[in-house]
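Predict structure. Chain length: 252.
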Amino acid sequence: MHNAAFRELGLNAVYVAFPVKDLPAAVGGLRGLHLAGVSVTIPYKEEIIPLLDGLDPQAARMGAVNTVINRDGRLMGYNTDWLGAVAALKTRTSIRGENFLILGAGGASRAIVFGLLEEGGMVTLTDLDADRAGNLGQQFGVETLPLADLDRYPGGVLINATPVGMEPCAEAIPIAPELLSRFTLVMDIVYRPLTTRLLREAAARGCATLDGLQMLIYQGAAQFELWTGRAAPVEVMSRAAYAALQDAEGVD
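Prediction complete.
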C-alpha cells in the first residue's frame, strides 16, 4: 500500500516490516538508523509512548500511538487509527447520534472511541478484562457493559476492535452469533482474513458489513501524509492493499 503510493508520486522511499521483540531496542534502532518514520501495531501502541520525545495532542488524549515521525532525531507520536475508523464508517453509516458497541479496550479501541466521540457517536465498551474496559470507559466518559450482558444491548453498530478471528485462528468469533441480528452494521478491524467469521455470520443475519482493510487504508493514507507532507493517492493505495491481500489468500 505505502510502496505503491511512493511509486505513484515518484518518492525515493520504501516501507518494510520489522518484527520487534525488544521495543526499547527497536526504538533505539529507529533513532540510530535515522528512519523517517514507522507504523506501530499491536501490542505496542500504548507501550511505545514513554519511549518517544513527544506526542501529538490527539494521540496524548487517546493514550495510543500508531505512527511515529523522526524529526531531526526527535521521535513524535501520532494516531491515525481514529481517522481511518471514522472515514471507513462514514462510507456505510452516519455517526452522530448512532449507538456503537465496541468489543475490546486496547490501543485500537482507544482510537476508535476517540473518533466516534469526536463525531458525535454514542459509545458502549466491553472487554474480557472488565477492569481494562472500566478504565477506558472512565477515561472517555462512556458506558461499559459486561460480556455476559451483551444480550441487553439494544443494537446499532458493532465494531470488533480485538484480534479475535485473525489468522491463524480464523474461525474464532468475539460475540455469540445469535446476538448479531440486532445490529444494522458490523465492522471488524481484523483484515486477515478479509471476510472474518464475524462478518460472515453477520451477513447471514442480514447485517451490513465493513471489513478491516477499509480502516487500514484510510489510516495508512493519513500516515503517508504525515510522513511525506504530500496528499495520499488513496485509490492507488486501496487497489494495492486489496490486491496484496487477495494474493496472500489465493483469491482470484
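Summary: Residues 82-213 form a domain with the Rossmann fold fold (CATH 3.40.50.720).
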